[in-house]
Amino acid sequence: MANTFDPYREALVVERHTVWPDAYEDWSAVDKARAEELLHAVPSDAAELDYVRQHTGFARVITVTPADLERVSVS
Question: What's the total number of domains in the chain?
Fold first, then answer.
């Protein structure tokens, strides 16, 4: 289950990751990178957000959804 946005953990994010469902395997690396920048710019708006505890802080993990892509207007 995805977590909700947490300002405390967000302040300790040292890595960011994006999980792309198989439906987007035909997207180019450039398009994915552009979408990832936009999604991670405002993580509080992500539909599926998770924080993974690491030794030095947290990793932010956003799983891409159609709603996210519509929100950032990437297609």
Answer: 1
Reduced to 3 states (helix: H, G, I; strand: E, B; else coil), residue 75 is coil
- Residue 1 counted as domain residue: no
Instruction: Please provide the distance, in angstroms rounded to a whole number, between the alpha carbons at the two ends of the chain.
Output: 27
Let me know if residue 55 belongs to a domain. yes
Residue 2 located in a structural domain: no
With bands split at pLDDT 50, 70 and 90, how would you rate the model's confidence at 74? low
Among the listed residues 35, 17, 20, the one whose alpha carbon sits nearest the alpha carbon of residue 72: 35
Q: Using one digit for the tens of pLDDT, what is the confidence trace for 15-59?
A: 999 999 999 999 999 999 999 999 999 999 999 999 999 999 999
